């Protein structure tokens, strides 16, 4: 989780929402990543997705070679609904997160994707049960550090957002 | 031809029934109900479970009993903040009730029972009828659905409807469903497809088809969002000022934390923010405000 927090700090330094992620397999760190939504202009480039892509690239796109089910994932904030669904689809091993994500969390905060599992788009109802697999999730690991980074980011406003909920420091409110 | 009116489509997977949550309940005699419900209203408000009827009359058995929700099943204290590395802690066999409720239950000398009840309010009458079999639910038209049906639907102009039909036709064609539906066995492969539309311009800005053969997460919608992001980067490339002025501005934002003082850094941050506001005001923020048309094909049946 310290490595994931280091990734989150790097994101903060790059004006990205400070969330970092690390994937571990057989006791070795096999991929690291961080949020990159602002730089890519793509709201789906969350730390988990970036890190998963790095693993897949190293496995030359071979799903079996990536061995996701043997991996543990550490992320500084609770996976959102999309990421929780993605982790279920890939049949990930245990997931450990820092702070809860009360607005978008898919591991209990908003939806229980980790319990319900996630089927591929377009599966018939009967097929969902077949593909169903939830996630083993634990939260609260180094929570204070994760929150501190997010607070630093949001206290000053997201510089890329059109009308920040909070005015950027050094400017008068719009 | 008018477009079919908006209708609620249940979330993927909800056909298996509602999400359930465990609660503690007691069964009491009707004459005990008034006192108990009065005390529970202050000691344990239903909170997010207000869609549930707190009390209902069980018809099975005599004498008639009233079944009452006490509160949600709390996890043992050490499960609320799971100890890292520890196994998931299951619910204790012994009721773990808030002190006020524990006293109340002890006074009644009735053992609480657990029940699994729908965690959320139903979105349709059909769901209400089905979920009420699990635990009685008070029907309320969901505000968001009601508002949408009342306000949004009648506002669709003929032109908007034509646009919507055109966009749906396009994503339908993109999915390959058109040729397949026409009976051509050699038509394009049928797959999920998605287009993203700027509703103001009335034009598609990005599209994508399922690419899961190449990457397990390249679903049509993800591919389309990626394409929209690529277009965004081309049309509004990051300005050099973003990189150059960033350090001082960022330092100010990170360290200043809201206190405005007349320093070079503050002035620089101000100038940078003003520039951002100008240069970004005409561009979309990610896909905010854009419409998405999606065809999900499954074994010859199509949803959109």
TrEMBL record, chain A:
Record-linked Gene3D superfamilies: Cytidine Deaminase, domain 2
Lineage: Eukaryota, Viridiplantae, Chlorophyta, core chlorophytes, Trebouxiophyceae
Entry superkingdom: Eukaryota
Molecular-function GO terms, alphabetical: tRNA-specific adenosine-34 deaminase activity; zinc ion binding
Keyword annotations from UniProtKB, A to Z: Hydrolase, Metal-binding, Zinc
Ranges in coiled-coil conformation: none
Gene Ontology biological-process entries: tRNA wobble adenosine to inosine editing
Annotated protein name in UniProt: CMP/dCMP-type deaminase domain-containing protein
Domain CMP/dCMP-type deaminase positions: 1-109
Automatic annotation (TrEMBL), chain B:
Molecular function as annotated in GO: catalytic activity
InterPro entries linked to this entry: Cytidine_deaminase-like (IPR016193)
Renumbered residue ranges of the record's region Disordered: 237-266
Name of the protein in its database record: Uncharacterized protein
Organism of this sequence: Symbiochloris irregularis
Organism taxonomic ancestry: Eukaryota, Viridiplantae, Chlorophyta, core chlorophytes, Trebouxiophyceae
């Amino acid at each position: 989780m310290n490595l994931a927090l280091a990734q989150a700090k790097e994101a903060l330094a790059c004006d990205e929402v400070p969330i970092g992620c690390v994937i571990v397999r057989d006791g070795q760190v096999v991929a690291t990543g961080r949020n990159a939504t602002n730089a890519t202009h793509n709201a789906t480039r969350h730390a988990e997705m970036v890190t998963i892509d790095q693993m897949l690239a190293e496995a030359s796109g071979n799903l079996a070679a990536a061995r996701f089910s043997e991996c543990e994932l550490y992320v500084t904030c609770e996976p959102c609904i999309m990421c929780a669904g993605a982790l279920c689809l890939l049949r990930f091993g245990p997931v450990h997160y820092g702070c809860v994500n009360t607005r978008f969390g898919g591991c209990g905060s908003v939806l229980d994707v980790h319990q319900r599992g996630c089927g591929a788009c377009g599966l018939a109802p009967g097929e969902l049960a077949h593909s169903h697999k939830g996630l083993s999730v634990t939260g609260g690991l180094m929570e204070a550090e994760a929150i501190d980074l997010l607070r630093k980011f949001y206290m000053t406003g997201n510089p890329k957002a059109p009308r920040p909920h909070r005015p950027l420091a050094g400017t008068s409110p719009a | 031809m008018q477009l079919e009116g908006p209708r609620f489509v249940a979330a993927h997977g909800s056909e298996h029934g509602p999400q359930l949550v465990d609660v503690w309940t007691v069964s009491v005699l009707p004459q005990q109900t008034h006192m108990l419900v009065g005390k529970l209203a202050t000691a344990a408000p239903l909170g997010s479970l207000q869609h549930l009827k707190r009390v209902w009359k069980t018809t099975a058995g005599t004498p008639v009993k009233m079944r009452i929700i006490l509160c949600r099943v709390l996890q043992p204290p050490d499960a609320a903040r799971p100890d890292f590395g520890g196994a998931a802690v299951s619910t204790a066999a012994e009721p773990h009730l808030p002190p006020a409720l524990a006293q109340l239950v002890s006074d009644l000398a009735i053992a609480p029972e657990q029940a699994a009840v729908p965690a959320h309010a139903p979105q349709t009458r059909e769901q209400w009828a089905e979920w009420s079999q699990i635990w009685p639910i008070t029907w309320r038209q969901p505000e968001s659905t009601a508002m949408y049906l009342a306000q949004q639907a009648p506002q669709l102009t003929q032109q908007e409807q034509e646009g919507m039909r055109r966009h749906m036709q396009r994503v339908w064609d993109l999915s390959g469903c058109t040729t397949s539906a026409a009976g051509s066995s050699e038509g394009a492969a049928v797959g999920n497809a998605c287009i993203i539309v700027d509703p103001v311009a009335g034009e598609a800005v990005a599209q994508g088809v399922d690419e899961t053969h190449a990457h397990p997460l390249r679903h049509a919608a993800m591919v389309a969002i990626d394409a929209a992001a690529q277009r965004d980067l081309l049309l509004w490339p990051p300005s050099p000022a973003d990189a150059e002025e960033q350090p001082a501005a960022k330092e100010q934002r990170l360290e200043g934390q809201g206190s405005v003082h007349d320093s070079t850094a503050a002035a620089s941050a101000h100038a940078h923010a003003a520039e951002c506001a100008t240069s970004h005001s005409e561009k979309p923020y990610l896909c905010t405000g854009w419409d998405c048309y999606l065809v999900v094909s499954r074994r010859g049946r199509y949803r959109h």
